[in-house]
Structures are given as structure tokens and as C-alpha cells.
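Table 4 source record.
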Amino acid sequence: MTSHNVLQLSQDLISIASASQISNADVSDYIENFFKQNAFEVERLEYTDDADNRKVSLVARKGEGKGGLGFFSHSDTVPGAEEYWDPYDPVVKDGLLYGRGSCDMKGPLAATMIAAANVDAKQLKHPIYVGVTADEEVGFGGARQVCEESQLLSQYGWPTQVVVAEPTELRPVYSHKGGFHVAVTAHGKAAHSSTEKGISANFLIAPFLAEMAELAKLFKTDESFMNHEFDPPTMGFNMVMTDHNCAGNVTAARTDVRLGLRAMPNGRHEDAVAMIVERAKKYNLEVSSRGVQAFYTSPDAELIQVALAATGIAKAETVPFGTEALLYQNHVDEQVILGPGNIAQAHTVGEYIDLAQLENAVGVYTQMIEELCIRK
């Protein structure tokens, strides 16, 4: 398919507003229609978010048999920031396509759709899947629903290999950091400070905070908590807190602390979480933790090698940002993060994608389909 088609499809998707704070139903309708016109079987999954917006995710399949190759993207974007530019009027200038989602990730999505649509189903020895999820920017709600509720994937099975088409400048990525969060709460007693009858939650949690400061130093200097496959090689240990705007002359009734770290393979993140939890319990604080493991596929895996051959890149890389690959890795054998565009453009006013790279992506994805679904 010509470069005009990938440009036109990208422009069409950009022109349909689908920020996470509103419904993505309109853009999903457009994408679903595209799939149906191009001989895909399509499943539609929906839910309503906390603001009563309809959210739609799609799973499309072409071809017969088991396994195959999947391309997964998301259709939501960050808000358009309309006060600074016209984000939904896609404009081409000096070889760049401007518009909200051009880079993250309606341009990459369009490239996967076209590469998959161009393939004759009769040629396929293994099926092609294209997944398009809601709410990636605000918690992976669509991807979670796809993983838990997709009847199409339950019926046929997941693809063996998946490309997550987030922008990497078409450089194959084999791993990125995950995320773990620990919530710690101190409960005090509110009273006017002049009465001396209150109990400050801030003072109750203060010894714990001092220990967190020491752990922060440890996590940044102890090599056993690092992984030098990443830049930076550390966990990005961070802490935020609130006493809920307690007045200066009142003892705080409650103080909440949220601690986060970016999990890496072989980076002792589970030990780090356990150390935080143990110290919270030592001070009789309320504590809970949750998280997702880092995404990792061996750089020697078949999918990574096929991606390197298709892109002409010598060596796969890691990135510090996260993607929905965190969830899909529980269902597929191999994944690669691979898409056109520079992540530095994501979420910016004046977001753009390089058209030459966008066009090249169609060829890269097509070559991967030929290698893994036709020749294999």
C-alpha cells in the first residue's frame, strides 16, 4: 500500500478526538469498519469508566490456525491542549505529520492496520491479530479487559508473538521497566494543637520516612538493586505524601504516603518492596502493595531477531518507559516494542511523527508478517 494511504489513515484517526478523559467510541467505530472492510473477524469489548464514558477495545483476526503474530496499540491519547494548538487538524509540514496522537500512537497504529490489511488471508499459514485498546494512558483499562474477557482470544488462543507498536524510532526493544507501588498510612487524632489532646499522624509516620530516606540512598548505590541493561540502571525510587491539607493549628488525623519503584529484571525489586513493607509494619502503619513485573523477552528470541532483520538494526535495546506489554507477557511467548516515532514527542504540544519513518514502518511490519505468518 502506498505512503498516501498510511498518511491518510493516520490523519483520519488523528482527526477523531479520543483523549482518555472522553469516550473513544467514535474512533473505535472507524477502526472497526476498516477491519471489516479488509476481511478481519472483529471482536468489540466495552466498559464504562468512572466518569460514565463509553470505552471500546477491539481485537481483529485474519487467517486460520493457531499462534501467529499480533500487533497491539491503543486508540486513546492524552488531552489535546486545544488552548495552544489545533490538535485534531492533522497537518503535514516539512516531512512531518502534526497532530495529537500522531506519534503516540495513532500513526503507529495506522501502520500496523495497513500492513495487516494488505496481506491476503489465503497466503497465511498463521493468523494475524490487531488489538486496539482503550485507556492505555490512564491505567491500561482496555488491555486488562482484553486479557480477562476477550472471547476471540479465548476461542482461538493468543498469538505466539506480539509487536507493541509504541514509538521507538523503529528500534526493536526487548525489555522495559515495570512498576510497583506501596501505600502507607498513619492514623492520628485530630484536635486543636493548643489542647495537646491530638495525635499527629505526621509525627507517627516521621520515623518511617527517615528510614525511606536511607533506603533511597541504598537503592541508588547498591549494585544488587541495579540492572545496567537500562539507562538509568536504578529503580527510580520515589515518594509522595499528603496530610490532606491539615490546618497548621490542628494535629493531622491521617497521613498517606505513596512509594513507587520501577521494577527491572534481576534488580531485586521484590526485596525492595519487602523492605519497605517491613519498615511500615515495624511502626504499626497501615500498608499495602501492588505492581506489575518488568517486560522482558530474551534478545536472542526469534521475534527480536526478525525485528532486527526487518529494521536493519544491529542490536535490540531497552527503554525506561512502560507499555501494555506488561500485561500481554502473561499470555504470549515473545514480544517486541517496535514503532515509528520518537517517544520524546509523546504528550507534547505540537506532537509530530516523521513521515518517512511512518511509511517505513508499514514495510517493516509487512516483512515481519511475511517471515512469521507466511514463510514459517
